[in-house]
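If your schedule permits, I should be very grateful for your opinion on a structural question. I would ask you to consider whether the tokens describe a fold that such a sequence might reasonably adopt. Thank you for your consideration; the sequence and its tokens are set out here.
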Amino acid sequence: MHRTPRLLSYSLAACAPALGLVIAVAPSSSAATSHMSPHARALAAARAELRRLHVGQHATDHWVFSHPTRVRGLTQVQSTNWSGYADTSSTFTTVTGSWIEPAVTCGSRGTDAVFWVGIDGFTSGSVEQDGTLAECSGGSAFYFTWWEMFPTNAIQVVGSSVVPGDSISASVVRSGTSYTLNVTDSTHPANSFSTTQSCSNCANSSAEWIAEAPSSGSILPLANFHTWTLNNATVSSTTVSNGNISSFPDDEITMVDNRGRVKALPGPLNGSSNSFTVTWERST
């Protein structure tokens, strides 16, 4: 959902901050909601709360720490808002992945959790991403599908009837300056969408599979999603077709707080390098 992750600044070579992004959700009207059912009112409130989420102001310097068993260019990175994997060192054309939507536990601290695949954002300011979002509102969890595209960088919420256990697949496919963003909810098809957007100056310099804590001025507490398992990951570039995550130099990204405590921990890639699990550890 974000652009460049908020990676811990242990380097002086930080790039310029990206522009702030705001979710594009129309505000709800109290008059319009007065005759709604309790569930509809709660959903309207959740959608209204999405307007406060911002994305951006993240430097692109990466703190890489030693990995005793380096595999095919794998490096380990710590970020305060991303957890998962990112591929670099190529010009990317396709990224795909699928997952079962995890159930979010809404506690007193955790507020949001976002799951997505995308091109760009790890090493650039352009973003072409889509997936699902869990929003805790009034003690209840609501789930959405969404997409985001540079240069507008406003997250477009599409489906609002996603529930835990839904079978989700997502992809971003580039052909020249045309990008097709697709999310399919096989369990509740009303949440599915496909949109084609254009970008003439996107970097296409990274591909990602990410669980994220969004921000609103500062990074929000990460909702307890327990585990998120990304399956069927594929990635293509201008030189490699139908690759897997380890087909390119890949970064394993651990989400930590400002004190270095783990918030979300990615597991190792499976034997086919197309699946991994991220485990929630803490909200802040």
About this structure: The chain has one domain: 21-280.
